[in-house]
């Protein structure tokens, strides 16, 4: 049985996929990306004898939103397995937007995702991943470098996981307190995989929703997702859990806003286990006028040392990403 290493899914963008001005939500695109990655990695991990399994999302690398997508366009999502370790799969996903009236096409997203396969017979058992054949030794070495780098980064982000977002009484305009937001969601069967755990794409869509509310509250304009820094899935979320998705502004530049988002899960059936941090990420948004042109972002007002520390960390990430983008442009 030959299972292809590539998959392709087209989908027409509907009004419920977009915001009030017709831009497709970043969360909708992230959900499509995750579905394509989940399909190809689950297919691949079931090409060997033994336990049947489902691939669960463990991490999404930094993802830039290169061009906006609009209602009526066709999203073409293609996924390819590029590296396998003993217990994980690296998937590269590209998203292309097609205007079916003019035939014009544009690349809107390129993403790298990591999946881990779990047994259907025992949800805590991680299955060994069948190896793939590489086009060259260089490709395999490059994949190994990515694998080691993302492992280190995942460990670093776990250190931040104790932080909580506290409500602020009578917050001032343009402060962290005025825009911070949260959303509570009861996890139902339609949110979950065959294993009874939440799809990574569902979680990312909720995170993007909250980050979007924070950004809109801060600048009171149309806002769009510009990029998402690495999203780390620290622990699985079970069907029946209540998830609290919280977001707060950490940094503003002249034209962008960084929002930190946490996902905390609470298992109502096993209440004695308490709430736990499941996912963390940083989203970057830009503010747009009615013609879709970038607007200046109101500066974030800092009120204490903690906020100043987060602002400086955000500024460092912003400058690093800016330098990377310039280096990539020069290479092209």
From TrEMBL:
Subcellular location: Cytoplasm
Gene that this polypeptide is encoded by: ACOT7
Main localization of the protein described in the UniProt heading: cytoplasm
Keyword Zinc-finger attributed: no
Keyword tags: Cytoplasm, Hydrolase, Lipid metabolism, Repeat, Serine esterase
Residues covered by region (Disordered): 293-314
BP GO terms, sorted: acyl-CoA metabolic process; fatty acid catabolic process
Domain HotDog ACOT-type, chain residue ranges per copy: 3-121, 177-291
A Pfam short name: 4HBT
Main enzyme class: hydrolase
UniProt keyword Repeat present: yes
Alphabetized InterPro entries for the sequence: Cytosol_ACT, HOTDOG_ACOT, HotDog_dom_sf, Thioestr_dom
One Gene Ontology MF term: long-chain fatty acyl-CoA hydrolase activity
Enzyme Commission designation: 3.1.2.2
Catalytic residues as annotated in Swiss-Prot or TrEMBL: 19, 208
Protein name: palmitoyl-CoA hydrolase
Cellular component GO terms, alphabetical: cytosol
């Amino acid at each position: 049985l030959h299972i292809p290493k590539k998959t392709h899914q087209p989908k027409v963008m509907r009004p419920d996929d977009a915001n009030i001005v017709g831009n497709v939500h970043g969360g909708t695109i992230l959900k499509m990306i995750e579905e394509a990655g989940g399909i190809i990695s689950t297919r691949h991990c079931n090409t060997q004898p033994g336990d049947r399994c489902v691939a669960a999302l463990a991490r999404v690398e930094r993802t830039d939103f290169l061009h906006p997508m609009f209602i009526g366009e066709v999203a073409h999502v293609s996924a390819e397995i590029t590296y396998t370790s003993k217990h994980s799969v690296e998937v590269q996903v590209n998203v292309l937007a097609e205007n079916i009236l003019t035939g014009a096409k544009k690349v809107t997203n390129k993403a790298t995702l990591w999946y881990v396969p779990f047994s259907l017979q025992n949800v805590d058992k991680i299955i060994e991943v069948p190896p793939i054949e590489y086009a060259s030794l260089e490709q395999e070495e490059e994949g190994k470098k990515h694998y080691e780098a993302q492992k280190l980064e995942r460990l670093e982000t776990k250190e931040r996981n104790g932080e909580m977002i506290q409500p602020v009484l009578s917050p001032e305009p343009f402060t962290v307190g005025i825009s911070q937001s949260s959303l509570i969601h009861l996890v139902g069967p339609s949110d979950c995989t065959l294993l009874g755990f939440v799809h990574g794409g569902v979680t990312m869509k909720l995170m993007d929703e909250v980050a979007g509310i924070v950004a809109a509250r801060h600048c009171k304009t149309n806002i769009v997702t510009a990029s998402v820094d690495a999203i780390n899935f620290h622990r699985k979320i079970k069907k029946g859990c209540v998830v609290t998705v919280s977001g707060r502004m950490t940094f503003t530049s002249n034209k962008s806003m960084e929002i930190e988002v946490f996902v905390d899960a609470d298992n109502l059936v096993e209440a004695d286990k308490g709430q736990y941090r499941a996912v963390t990420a940083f989203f970057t948004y830009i503010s747009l006028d009615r013609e879709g042109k970038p607007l200046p972002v109101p500066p974030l007002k800092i009120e204490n040392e903690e906020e100043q520390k987060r602002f400086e960390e955000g500024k460092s990430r912003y400058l690093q990403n800016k330098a990377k983008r310039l280096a990539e442009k020069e290479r092209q």
